[in-house]
Design brief:
four-stranded antiparallel sheet, VWFA domain-containing protein, Ig-like_fold, VWF_A, alpha/beta, Rossmann fold, elongated
Length: 344
């Protein structure tokens, strides 16, 4: 026994840290674990705990393996029978065992964990993934209670948040009016049975916060966490509503703009029809102007060509005249030579 039975959760946390400091070793003696729990819960010889006769005796048994003791690894059937006998002894002492088989090894041969729960009217819970253990335990109810309701009859409001733990304990926050408030608490069992009680709570504004018993601090902190989650959820829902409203308004704006654009397009289409017609006329006129310009260009080209031809003819006439002048000069020179010859 690492830590005797206690209501001091800090001691439980220290004991768990000590367990974590020791690496797992040896074999699995499930029967001895069940017997040790029986000894502690009933205060039998060798117990480190003192029996509480008014308490409900419950064992949460976690294992990630199969029994390999007290007879050894080669005697699987005998080891399982030892677990059965230990569970029967626990049942005779009024102890209920809720067993958890964790991981593939324990789930491959779960007969010991299944039967110890059956023999003590407990619950067997398979946990395929060890990392899900905390969430799985919180979802299992060990108190045969299906529900709890806390209602302030004076203010006509229910407790919110309200949390019921696996062992049947519960806690919640309820709004109070100044003065005396009548609080109704109703519990429903799994078989449908109901029990109701009322409490008178006096609220004096400004009186200061009452001291919270140490054993309820963790539960209060969890309720505060639930409040924070609820506030975040409300904010997220409000944000989603705002986003949805923005999307709706944007969609409506898009539709309005789309319709306006369609109308402008129709108007513009009519305007463009006139513009296109005018453009067609202008284009025709431009084409006519281009045709006329081409005719003028051709006419000018012909005139230029004719001028070139005339220039060429004039140049030829000039050249012929120069040739004739040269011939005349030659004839004159020849005549002069003959005259000189006659004189001689």
């Amino acid at each position: 026994t690492e830590q005797p039975l206690t209501n001091d959760f800090s001691r439980v946390e220290i004991a768990l840290r000590n367990v974590l400091m020791n690496d797992p070793s040896g074999q699995t003696h499930i029967a001895a674990g069940v017997d040790q729990a029986t000894i502690e819960l009933t205060g039998m010889r060798g117990a480190l705990s003192t029996e509480d006769p008014d308490s409900e005796k419950v064992v949460l048994f976690f294992t990630d393996g199969q029994p390999t003791l007290p007879y050894g690894p080669g005697f699987a059937a005998d080891n399982v029978r030892a677990v059965f006998r230990a569970a029967t002894r626990a049942n005779r002492m009024g102890i209920r065992i809720h067993s958890f088989a964790i991981g593939p090894d324990a789930l491959e041969g779960p007969i010991a964990t299944v039967e110890m729960a059956n023999r003590t009217n407990g619950y067997f819970t398979p946990v395929r993934h060890p990392g899900d253990l905390v969430e799985v335990v919180e979802e299992v109810s060990f108190a045969n209670m299906s529900g709890i309701r806390v209602h302030n009859q004076t203010k006509n409001v229910d407790a919110n948040p309200l949390r019921m733990t696996a062992d049947g304990s519960w806690g919640g926050f309820v709004q109070l009016d100044p003065g005396e408030n009548t609080i109704e608490v109703a519990a429903t069992a799994d078989d449908g049975a109901e029990a109701t009680t009322t409490l008178a709570v006096n609220f004096e504004p400004g009186a200061g916060e009452a001291a919270i018993p140490r054993g309820l601090v963790n539960q209060r902190n969890r309720l505060l966490e639930d409040c924070l989650i609820a506030v975040k959820r409300v904010r997220m829902e409000a944000e989603e509503d705002r986003n949805a409203q923005v999307r709706r308004e944007l969609k409506m704006e898009i539709e309005r703009e789309r319709e306006a654009a369609r109308q402008r397009a129709n108007d513009q289409r009519k305007e463009l029809k006139i513009i296109v017609d005018d453009s067609d006329e202008q284009e025709k006129k431009i084409l006519i102007d281009i045709d006329e310009s081409d005719d003028q260009r051709q006419q000018i080209q012909m005139e230029v060509d004719e001028a070139d031809r005339q220039n060429q003819q004039i140049q030829m006439d000039v050249d012929e005249s120069d040739r004739q002048d040269q011939q005349i000069q030659m004839d004159v020179d020849e005549s002069d030579r003959q005259d000189q010859k006659i004189q001689m």
